[in-house]
Specification:
Blueprint lengths: L13 H14 L3 H31 L5 H9 L1
Length: about 80
């Protein structure tokens, strides 16, 4: 049967390792589960940052300064 996971070995500064262990124990998760969740959260945050940047570009492009400006654009 093929393995569905990969084994990864990492080195962390001691203070980061201690934080990882505190969070792991608090969340009652394995290191693997916690790191997987951290990566998924990072991906979600990156997506939101893209949305924010696109919104800022649109704001600048259409000179939007208020919600009323948005409604005017939508309703025109």
């Amino acid at each position: 049967m093929l393995r569905q996971t990969k084994v990864v070995s990492i080195s962390l500064p001691e203070n980061i390792y201690i934080k990882l262990e505190k969070i792991r124990k608090k969340e009652d998760k394995s290191r693997s589960e916690l790191i997987k969740q951290l990566i998924q959260n990072y991906e979600k945050e990156e997506l939101w940052q893209q949305v924010y940047r696109r919104g800022a570009q649109t704001k600048k492009q259409f000179n939007i300064t208020s919600e009323d400006d948005i409604l005017k654009i939508i309703n025109d």
